[in-house]
Amino acid sequence: MSVPYLALAIFSGFLLFFALIRLMQAVAGRVSRCEIGCSKTIGSREVQEDFYEVVRSSEGLLAVLADGMGKELGGKIAARKVTEVFAELFQEYNALDHPFYFFQKAFQTANREVLKLFEDGRGSAVASAIMLRESPVCGEYPQMYYAIVGNVRVAVLRSGELIPVGSGHTINVLAQDKYYSGDITREDALALLDVNRIYNYIGKDHFKDIEFYDTPIQLKKNDVVVLMSDGIYEGMEWRELEEYLKRPARCQQLAYDVIEHINRKTEDKDNAGIVLLRVGELC
Fold first, then answer.
1. Which of 169, 227, 231, 270 has a 20 to 30 Å separation from 40 between CA atoms?
2. Structural domains in the chain plus CATH codes
3. CB atoms within 10 A of CB 9
């Protein structure tokens, strides 16, 4: 290859490299335009067991909300460990890795770490996580991937309607699944419909069940992704929550308002945590 052609090839290589860098920045920029709001309350409990983390990177955005369970400080320590594991692993996340494998690795790692902390079962947690990544279709808004263990709920507010995502791991949900698959009778299923006890959680021997997305959810402008512990959706009506989230305010203010609504209740209150992510303009 002659010198002019070699120089041209090198120059073209540099152009391609910088184009890729700009593309990655654009991808990160679109996801980073998501507005974030987070808040929580200890309620009437002595210990706060709800923890959340929201992490941005060049590969997208991760949000995780964990709700601890256990004796003394066991639930608090377990929930905090879960969010730490997810945040640390996402810092190492490579866009070439599929989100399914990230969630699987993160939940399994979190389970091992919690079991190391509490061999006697004093601490455990439930959690949900969502990942926002750039859509493969040029000009589209980010896609949302989710994974759930336990009863931390995920929903999307779109066009004023709060739509639940996933079903979680409670006895009543399991009963419905078993009935539809023909494993139990209708009478047995109906008898279990009011049982909200959790049957799957982090910090459990032989842990393996994780509820994953079937296909990623294509988000739209002004969609609000919601992660919430049971202190939220059991502390207020779904319709009330929907009305709060429809208000024309910043996500952080909406999160504060929802928590303040929970705090105003006079009856016994559980810990409550909420994370809001609103999809913004494309670059």
1. 169
2. 33-278 (3.60.40.10)
3. 11
